[in-house]
Amino acid sequence: MKQLELSTRKQFALVFLAFVFLGICFKVMVLVEGLTEIRPVNAIPVVAGLLFGPVGAWACAWGNLAADCFGTLQLTSSLGFLGNFVGAYLPYRMWYLYRQEAPHVHTAYNLLIYIWITFVAALAASWLIAGGIWFLFGFYIENLALYIFLNDLVFPLIFGLPVFIVLTSDSIRIACAEEKKSIIPVSRQGKQRLCCIYALLLAGIFVLLLAGEPEYVLPGQILSVPALLLTLIMLF
User: Fold this and answer.
1) Rg of the chain, C-alpha, whole Å
2) pLDDT in tens, 183-198
């Protein structure tokens, strides 16, 4: 069956408009005033990244910023922009570390890959946003890291996964973004190993964020240096 191909503009518009609409609709379900809420919209980044690659990632980032204009726009929105870009682009990059085929979850192994990359992306978003606010802006918000992590883990699995299954089914078969050649000279096997180290590093930072003790600021900042380096390696 012929694949459904969308132009770059249509890909961006589809993701951007969906993100803005859902992002605005759930602004009333506040978890941390001015910073985050219960966000079904976070089902979008993983799916958008797997389907449309960098276009989907940019659409999520700008969509989140546009949604923030409706009541929550502030300097920390720059971290939300970054977090949502990475939350979409990292799954796209990670998929092709483990599979050399277009993204889909029609096999048990591929489903496990989807869950794995969703988990790592949720840790990365939690670190970038909650960690960024604490390590860079100097104020700690209790449970913020946990809320971001759960939003980015639960909704892609509950809502994003069924949508992804439908969009990659034989009846629709949206053409997914092809693998983009890495500009960093690390082998596929090497990146797979680095990805495991990356996940462990992010998990360590996540534990520090949950603890929230003042003496953990410096360790969190120190651990964030190799985390940033590995983020660049994973993305590029």
Assistant:
1) 17
2) 888 888 999 999 999 9
**pLDDT for 42-98, tens place per residue?**
999 999 999 999 999 999 999 999 998 887 788 888 999 999 999 999 999 999 999
Q: How many C-beta atoms surround the C-beta of residue 137 within 10 A?
A: 11
Please write down the HEC assignment for all residues of the chain: CCCECCCHHHHHHHHHHHHHHHHHHCCCCEEECCCEECCHHHHHHHHHHHHHCHHHHHHHHHHHHHHHCCCCCCCCHHHHHHHHHHHHHHHHHHHHHHCCCCCCCCCHHHHHHHHHHHHHHHHHHHHHHHHHHHHCCCCCCCCHHHHHHHHHHHHHHHHHHHHHHHHCCCCCCECCCCCCCCCCCCCHHHHHHHHHHHHHHHHHHHHHHHHCCHHHHHHHHHHHHHHHHHHHHHHC
